[in-house]
Amino acid sequence: MVTTSAPGILRALSAGHRERLMRAACEASFPQGARLFEEGGRADRFWIVRTGTVDLDMHVPGRRAAVIETLGHNELVGWSWLFSPHVWHLGAEATTPVRAYEFDALAVRTMCADEPALGSAVARWVGDVLAHRLCSARTRLLDLYAPYGAGTRV
Description:
It is a single chain. The protein is an alpha+beta fold. The chain has one domain (9-141): Jelly Rolls. 34% of the residues lie in helices and 25% in strands. It has four helices and eight strands. The chain has a four-stranded antiparallel sheet with strand order 1-8-3-6. Strands 2-7-4-5 form a four-stranded antiparallel sheet. A hairpin with a 7-residue loop joins β4 (54-58) and β5. The chain is globular.
């Protein structure tokens, strides 16, 4: 279930801001089935997917984790690193082998504080991603758990 994505870094940041941010990146790879992070864990990094797919999931008591969204090429994995208390709100798992750019959250937050225009651009980008993810989560949870026809108007 790859959904319509939020703005990727290429569309969200100017070339100069993108270049500045990418200087802080390092290469990372994850085998299929690897957990990138768990809901409730410390959000100290984030990724931009180069190849492969990552499922975002949400713990549901008494059930398997609900997959909220599947992310792919050029998409941001993780937004909780930008907002206090820097704790993951979802979990993430590689559904295929994944290659990604990995960023240290503290380094990027410091870079954004030192360069307000970059900070503003990154905040807008991550905010757009967050708004998209909230909408996706709502839609997916209604699909999974609402009674059939609950969303139809009479």
